[in-house]
Amino acid sequence: MFGISPSQLLFFIVGLGVFMASISLYLGRRKTETPILVSVIGFFTAFIPPIALIYLLILVFKRDLPKV
């Protein structure tokens, strides 16, 4: 009865992709040496939301890089 249109689905996926990319970039700067790569991977995980959530949890629980 209340279906979702393809444009709504696309908007959701792109919005989730931008959100995942920005959060991944923030966490990637603190926890990895390649934050851009982490951000790109975060964007593409948004196409499969359960994978995006798992990826985000892995980044959150990863140890921070030592401060130089």
| Number of DSSP-assigned strands | 0
Tell me the series of helices and strands, N- to C-terminal. HHH
Number of domains: 1
Strand content range: under 5%
What is the overall number of helices? 3
| Poorly predicted spans | none
Helix content: over 70%
Largest sheet: none
Rg result: 14 Å
> What oligomeric state do the depicted chains represent?
single chain
Structural class: mainly alpha
Instruction: State mean pLDDT (0 to 100 scale).
Output: 94
Shape assignment: elongated
**End-to-end distance, in Å?**
58 Å
Short summary:
The protein is built from three helices and no strands.
What does this protein look like?
The chain has one domain (9-61). The protein is 74% helix and 0% strand. It has helices spanning 6-31, 35-45, 49-61. The longest helix has 26 residues, at 6-31. The chain crosses the membrane at residues 9-28, 40-61. Keywords: Membrane, Transmembrane, Transmembrane helix.
